[in-house]
Specification:
Blueprint: H1 2-7, H2 11-18, H3 25-55, H4 62-81, H5 87-96, H6 106-118, H7 126-143, H8 148-167, H9 170-179, H10 193-211, H11 229-261, H12 267-284, H13 295-301, H14 306-325, H15 333-348, H16 356-372, H17 375-386, H18 392-403
Helix pairs in contact: 3-6, 3-7, 3-8, 3-10, 4-6, 4-12, 6-7, 7-8, 8-9, 8-10, 9-10, 9-17, 11-14, 11-16, 11-18, 12-14, 13-15, 14-15, 15-16, 16-17, 16-18, 17-18
GO molecular function: chloride transmembrane transporter activity
Organism: Leptospira fluminis
Membrane topology: Multi-pass membrane protein
């Protein structure tokens, strides 16, 4: 450890403190952390893609058996490797334990989340990446002998790099890593803002270089054509609709959480039962399977009436909450975007509009803000993910969804700041 610390006292880092520019040795460290975060995220994504293609070959009734067995495998991984934790624990550690995240749970989190996501669970890779790379940032800070806000900033920078790698939005990813840590304040740990931006940018560069994903929008929505004041009025109305979906989501979450808490036995009993239920839902409605990254484009073009899309919204909400409540691992951001877009398709039968993409994006923003309590970063993320250039009306929808959402948050650690 002394050798490592002495390495960062070499002439390069010493000169960085004496140069006439704003560049400092801390800037270099945050960039290095981001480079590593982008490398890990790219490898995680490639393994995930391979496993998804390999496992996804099974169709029809075999999906039920596959997801049941996968649930058993997820439970056994957690049973033998240890409890990997969840985003609430990460938030608690950031806020109340000086930002220190333990790397011991990383093997369990990586293995269980890879199997959860690739076999079709309704949760995405953002939560595992945030936790794993954030803990590596914490380890890196301890290695350098950092304490207090410096350690916390390094951890948050790691979280931001993991989030940005997946979503391709350095600004939105950095803000999300800060905004999700509290319920009331957009950025409480403002000291970590610039470190998060630096780490996010370098992680994004490495992730793009290794995956060749490009810098265009992730989802191909028709371009939104800005109108007048009516766009803001519509955005608020869409935000109210998104908040209503958020209330439904929270109610289903309470029911599934209570139900699975009553299941006796070790963790693999719950995960197996969860896999069985997820398999049945996916067999009945295949679009509920997976976390929605690829399926979201299909929502734009899929033909169906309000009954089809309304039932898809409810089944996807049930699938997301079954995934989380039964002990499967993953994040809910992209699944919530899927729910929002599907809700938009449902409303089109009742409120026809020429700006269909505007309706979908507003619902995506308001539903996600309602559940995750992140209205600002959600808006910026969607601007990059969908290519919308005039995103101010979307912010109105996002804020409406947030302020009309349940006071009791989905992520329980956020309630402490309320």
């Amino acid at each position: 450890m002394d050798r490592i610390r002495s390495f960062f006292r070499n002439p390069i880092f010493v000169l960085s403190r004496k140069n006439p520019f704003m560049l400092s040795r801390w800037s270099i460290l945050y960039v290095l952390l981001g480079l590593f975060g982008g490398l890990f995220a790219a490898l995680f994504w490639k393994v995930l893609e391979y496993l998804t293609v390999f496992i996804g070959k099974l169709e029809g009734p075999w999906i039920i058996a596959l997801m049941t067995v996968s649930g058993l495998g997820i439970g056994l991984i957690i049973y033998f490797l240890g409890e990997p934790g969840e985003i609430s624990l990460v938030i608690d550690n950031i806020r109340f334990k000086g930002g220190k995240l333990d790397t011991k749970s990383n093997p369990s989190m990586a293995a269980s989340s890879l199997l959860s996501i690739s076999s079709g669970g309704s949760a995405g890779p953002e939560a595992p990446l945030i936790q794993i790379i954030g803990s590596i940032g914490s380890w890196f800070a301890e290695l350098l002998g950092l304490e207090g806000e410096e350690l916390r900033s390094m951890t948050i920078a790691g979280m931001a790099s993991g989030f940005t790698s997946l979503f391709g939005s350095p600004l939105g990813g950095a803000l999300f890593a800060l905004e999700i840590l509290q319920h009331r304040h957009v950025v409480e740990y403002y000291e970590a803002l610039l470190p998060a931006f630096l780490s996010s940018c370098s992680a994004y560069f490495v992730f793009l270089w290794m995956t060749d994903m490009g810098i265009g929008p992730t989802w191909q929505f028709p371009q939104y054509v800005p109108g007048g004041i009516e766009d803001f009025e519509n955005a608020i109305a869409f935000g109210i609709a998104g908040a209503a979906v958020g209330w439904i989501f929270y109610g289903v979450f309470r029911a599934t959480k209570f139900s699975f808490a009553k299941v006796p036995g070790p963790i693999f009993v719950k995960t197996t039962l969860g896999g069985l239920l997820l398999g049945c839902i996916a067999f009945y409605q295949p679009l509920t399977r997976y976390f929605g990254h690829d399926q979201l484009n299909q929502i734009v073009t899929t033909q169906g009436n309000w009954i089809f899309f309304g039932s898809l919204v409810l089944l996807k909400i049930l699938a997301i909450n079954t995934t989380i409540s039964s002990g499967w691992r993953g994040g809910i951001i992209i699944p919530l975007f899927f729910v929002g877009a599907t809700t938009g398709r449902f409303l089109m039968d009742f409120f026809p509009t020429e700006n269909e993409s505007f309706l979908l994006i507003c619902l995506m923003a308001s539903v996600n803000a309602s559940v995750t309590k992140t209205p600002v970063s959600t808006t910026i993320l969607l601007a990059d993910l969908t290519g919308v250039s005039s995103f101010t009306p979307v912010l109105f929808a996002s804020l409406s969804g947030y302020f009309l959402s349940p006071k009791a948050p989905f992520i329980r650690s956020q309630a402490d700041s309320n």
